[in-house]
Design goal:
CATH superfamily: Aldolase class I
Number of strands: 10
Helix content: 40-55%
Strand order of the largest sheet: 5-6-7-8
Number of domains: 1
Bound molecules: ligand V47
Structural class: alpha/beta
Radius of gyration: 20 Å
CATH architecture: Alpha-Beta Barrel
Number of helices: 14
Order of helices and strands: HHHEEHEHEHHEHHEHEHEHHEHE
């Protein structure tokens, strides 16, 4: 077996990590060395830039047909804490952003039992009618698979309808952990790993860019994380359709897995760095500030992340309900630029497709 020093030297020379070598590096290399390697990889792709965007989320409902054990967001229908926004309410919300400079709306929610594919297309059309300039990054692969199957269409046909309605990209959610045994324990009734890949592959074939996530820090092992990253790398080799990878730290407040606790910040940083090193074909690694909190996000930039997500404007509840520090997550452009500058990088506004937006102030 090779030592971590040998493996680090190979990574530095541009060699691709095997699963075996990744495990040695992950478990044995000192954290500072992973920082050095991951930042070098990040700098080869995005130089000193760290990206942010101006965005908000639409979460139409927290009613969900699935019952994932890590989820703090879902409520049963009829519960006092369940919500189902009407189209008029969501339109009013979008109208608040007219002229605000927002470039992306991220739509994600529970998999509602009654919403049809037509409903999801109408929601996209409504957003586009109010905010014609924004890109719509909408619906996780699990929501998509469910709504498309319910409509009796093939994945390609269903996605094409949504694209025709104005969908521009797909977020990375619903990936959780791909290992089938762990998935069966943390989200037994949820759409499968195979379904997640089927949707992303089809999206890439239709020219749609997508993101990918990994929910880590619960009952999975490092081997499971490596397996997850390897499966993503394989699809990316075939399609080049992933824009960004987002490791999502399991937050333990208010869900049926709460007794598990949360992993240490060193685990977060190691996971970020190893994601950057294993996913040598994915251009962007996102440190989602809403989930990590602002302080860990600042550190994340020293471990290979080149994106912090966006302004959010207090529009998402998934993470505040799961115990994240910011109960009303919101950052101004100035705050994001200050965070990136403090970490020694250069803040650059981007759109959904990572085109740079030059704001001459
Ligand atoms: O799939 C749910 C995760 C995801 C918890 O693509 C939890 O740009 C931790 O995918 N602890 C949805 N994580 C959010 C998501 C996302 C977020 C930001 C940006 C993008 C993007 C995508 O949230 C779910 C699940 O993995 N999640 N509950 C929890 N307790």
């Amino acid at each position: 077996m090779r030592t971590w020093e040998d493996i680090a030297a190979c990574v530095k020379a541009g060699q691709r990590l095997s699963a075996e070598d990744a495990l040695v590096l992950w478990q044995e290399a000192p954290l500072w060395r992973l920082s050095e390697l991951a930042v070098a990889k990040k700098r080869a792709i995005s130089g000193d830039k760290v990206f942010y965007n101006r965005n908000f989320h639409l979460e139409p409902t927290n009613v969900c047909v699935f019952n994932c054990k890590f989820c703090s967001f879902r409520r049963p229908r009829g519960s006092a804490e369940a919500w189902e926004w009407s189209m008029a309410q969501m339109q009013e919300l979008c109208e608040r952003y007219v002229g605000s400079g927002v470039t992306e709306v991220h739509i994600v929610g529970g998999v509602h039992p009654d919403h049809s594919l037509d409903y999801y297309c109408s929601l996209i059309r409504m957003v586009k009618s109010v905010l014609p300039e924004v890109a719509i990054k909408a619906y996780t692969a699990i929501e998509l698979s469910y709504m498309i199957r319910r409509a009796g269409l093939s994945v390609h046909e269903g996605l094409q309808r949504l694209i025709d309605a104005g969908m521009n990209a797909i977020p990375g959610g619903g990936a959780e952990i791909f290992d089938e045994e762990i998935r069966a324990k943390i989200c037994p009734d949820k759409g499968s790993t195979q379904e997640w890949f089927e949707v992303h592959r089809a999206a890439h074939e239709l020219g749609l860019k997508t993101n990918a996530t990994m929910l880590y820090g619960h009952i999975e092992s490092v081997e499971h994380r490596i397996d997850h990253l390897m499966r993503l790398r394989e699809l990316q080799d075939a399609t080049s359709g992933f824009n960004a990878f987002i490791p999502l730290k399991y937050r333990n407040f208010g869900n049926p897995m709460s007794e598990i606790g949360e992993v240490a910040i060193t685990d977060d940083l190691r996971t970020l760095a190893m994601s950057r090193l294993i996913l040598d074909n994915v251009p962007h690694i996102k440190a989602y500030w809403v989930m990590y909190g602002k302080q860990t996000t600042e550190m994340a930039l020293m471990f290979g992340a080149d994106d912090i997500d966006g302004t959010i404007d207090d529009s998402t509840k998934i993470y505040s309900m799961a115990g994240a520090e910011d109960k009303r997550p919101k950052m101004s452009v100035e705050q994001m630029c200050e965070m990136v500058t403090r970490a020694g990088f250069c803040a650059v506004e981007r759109d959904t497709h990572y085109n740079e937006i030059n704001n001459i102030k």
